[in-house]
C-alpha cells in the first residue's frame, strides 16, 4: 500500500488508499494503531490539509470509515465530520494542525454509545473534495500537485453547471489574468441545452465586482458558507441569443437585478444601462 510523502521527499510511515465509497471518491488515510501501525498518521493528515490549503481549495469533507462504525452507521453521511455545524470543512484562516485536532475531537465523539468512555478506536477516514479526482489525490499524497497545474485544470471550460460552480469557487481565490473567454460557446446535448462556460470568466467578474452589484451598486445580500459574497453572473446578451462567454458580456449582479434582467418589463432598457455603466462591457446586440 502506498504511503504519504513529506515535503523533503521522505516516505512517512502512514499508508493511504484511493477508493470510492457510496459514490464518494477520495483519499483514505489508513487507521492509526495499534502503535506499530501508521504511527505518522497525524503528521500525514497535517500534510494533506496543508497541501489542500496551498492549492487554494476552500473546503473538504471527512468521513469516518472505520469498520466498527460502518456496521453501526451504514449511511456514510451519518459518519461525516462537521466543524461549526458544517460538513463542508473550511480551509481559510486556520492552521492545518489546529484543524486536524478539531476534526480528531469530532471523530472521537462519533461512536455507537455517546455515554461510553473513550473515543473511536480507529482513525480510518475518507478525505473528499468534489473537485479532486483520484489522479490528483495521488499527486497531493506524493507532493507533486502544483498551483499552476491545478489552476489550468480549473480553467478548462465546462457545460456542467455544478462543475462550473465548483471551479469558480476555487478560482476566485487566485489572482487571475484577464481571461479570453469563449466567443461562440458550444452546446452539449443533455435534457436541456447547456452552454460551455469558462470558469475563469465568472471568477474574474466576481473578483472585479468585489462584493457589490455592478448594476445597482448595492452590497451582496449575504455571504455564503465559505465567506464569499453571494452575487450572480449574468450574460448581458444571453448565450441563447448568440452572446459570448467573455468579461465583455458578463456582469456580477445581486439576485434582484439578475431577475430584473431576465423578467423585468424594462429588461431591454437595463441592457443599455449596464453597458453604459460598466466600462468593460461591449454591446453585442446586432453583432
Which key features would you list for this structure?
9 helices, 287 residues, 2 domains, single chain, alpha+beta
Neighbour order of strands in the largest sheet: 1-2-3-6-4-5
- Count of individual helical segments: 9
Distance between the termini: 59 Å
- Report the count of strand segments: 10
- Structural class call reads alpha+beta
Write down the domain tally. Answer: 2
Quote the beta fraction: 15-25%
Gist of the model:
This protein is α+β, with helices and mostly antiparallel strands.
Strands, helices and their partners?
Blueprint (H helix, E strand, L loop, with lengths): L2 E3 L5 E11 L2 E6 L11 H14 L4 E6 L2 H6 L16 E2 L5 H14 L15 E4 L5 H9 L4 H8 L6 H11 L15 E3 L3 E3 L3 H11 L22 E4 L14 E4 L1 H9 L3 H11 L10
Antiparallel strand pairs: 1-2, 2-3, 3-6, 4-5, 4-6, 7-8, 9-10
Helix pairs in contact: 1-3, 6-7, 8-9
Structure description:
By secondary structure, the protein is an alpha+beta fold. It folds into 2 domains: 3-145, no CATH class; 157-277, no CATH class. It is 32% helix and 16% strand. It has helices at 41-54, 67-72, 96-109, 134-142, 147-154, 161-171, 199-209, 255-263, 267-277; strands spanning 3-5, 11-21, 24-29, 59-64, 89-90, 125-128, 187-189, 193-195, 232-235, 250-253. It has a 6-stranded antiparallel β-sheet, sandwiched between helices. A two-stranded antiparallel ribbon has the order 7-8. The longest helix has 14 residues, at 41-54. The termini are far apart.
